[in-house]
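Morning, I've got a small favour to ask if you have a moment. I owe you a coffee for this, so here goes:

…
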Amino acid sequence: MHDPIAHSPVDVLIAEDDVNLRDVLRAVLEKKGYRCTVAATGREAVASARQSPPRLVFLDLTKPGSDSLFVARQLRADPQMRHTHIHCLSARSDAEARRQALQAGCELLLTKPLDANALLQVVEEQVQSPQERRRTGLTLRQAEELLDWLEANGNTGAELALEEEGFSVRWSETP
C-alpha cells in the first residue's frame, strides 16, 4: 500500500491536443484556484494520471494519435482512479458519441465550443474547492486515501464525514 499523502494533488487533468483550448481551460481553472495539469496525447494523459491521480479528467474525444475511448477505459480500470470523474470533450454531440463515451467510462460528454460557466459548474460540483482544501490541509482524495490506509491497517473506527463547509477525518488511536 502506498503512502496516502505521497502524490502531489491534482484537481483537473486536461487532456486536449489543441494547445490554445488546453491553455485557456487551464488558465480559467487555475484562476479559480484549481490545481491543473495538462497532456497533449492520450499516452501523456495516462502517465500523468498514474503519477498524480486527478479528481477530474477532461479528455478530448478526437485526440489524434490515440483512441481517446481506450484512454478513458485505461483510466477507469486503474484502482487509483476509482473516484476520478472522467468527462469527454468533443465537437460531436450525436447519440452514438454519447453512447461510446458512456461505455468507455465517461460520465459526461461536453460539446465544443465549450461554455466556460457550464464547465466551471461541473468542476465546482465534482472537485473540492480551494477554500475547503485550505481549511483542512488535505484534498478530499488525500482524505479518502488516508481513510483507506487506516482501514487497511486495522483501524475500523475511522470515518470520513462530509460536512456543509468541507469534510473531516476522524479516527481513534487504537483499532
Summary: The first helix runs from residue 19 to 31. DSSP finds seven helices and seven strands in the chain. Residues 131-170 form one domain.
